Fold these 2 entries.
Entry 1:
Amino acid sequence: MKFNKEIIKKAHEMTKEIKNQYADVDYKTQFGLCLSYLLKNEEDMKMVELKGTEKQIKWAEKIRETMIKHIDFYKSNFNSAGALKKNYFFDFKEEIMSFMGKEKINTTEATESLNNIIDTAWDNLTKETSSKFFIEHREETTVELIKKFL
């Protein structure tokens, strides 16, 4: 995506929504993350067309967009958590061990594994075509969503 007025507007929209949900987020920092994300991921952001009634599709598109923002926010927080990364590892202990195929792993391996898990969930989320799916799972936590889309 080229740096232009449209991308700045989209980054501000994303940042405002995240700031509204997480009051302790620094706006400037989050804006920078959103802007960087949009610039790097234009091709990745192409999602499949949803199926369902017109009303379902319209509602599901909003839900899907929110889910993606939550997953992006989760990944951003995880990667900037420093020593607190262990809290994130706890949420995905079984998935990380299964992904790595080992019983013991170090922090670097766990970090790489969890980033891969989140990326896989993000990719699968963008490929989901059922409006009904998004509507039925709109109340799930970010952790539940990531696990569901593995």
Entry 2:
Amino acid sequence: MTKLPYHRQNLATLIQQQARQQLEEQGAEKLSLRQIARFLAVTPAAVYRHFPDKASLLAALRVEITEELAAALRAGVLDSADATAMLQRMVSNLLAFAAAHPRAVRFVLTAPLAAPQSLTTVLALVNAQRQVTGSPTDTTAVWTLLVGVLCQLPNPQLTAKWLTTQVLSLLNHE
């Protein structure tokens, strides 16, 4: 077991990093604060000072993963002026994130996951570019479809192109 030096100010960060690694490797159900303490060569009490229980650590991880997912969705989306290409890029980003972090995605899907603002923006651009009036429920419907797809992964038949086509159909644009 490798002993890592730490300073009081960064122990919470180290705990969260180790917890994320455990979550990615074993899933949330096997996450152990005592194992984290052992790995970091600190007492369990030191871990519990920063995270009083597993639930509080999982809540911090949920926020972290949700923020990473939202950032991943936005990555490179504005590289194109075409709204449909933006949508396809966003869908590709979502599938890539899910492939790279399957246990993290499974974990965040155990609680309600709000649609990211970037999706609302891209859908508004798709509607504007196609000169169609969107519905206030478009984002909810599309996000529900995308989250449903995440629950089906991995599935090689679910490609970004296919999924983008389904989203456009859902929006009644094609």
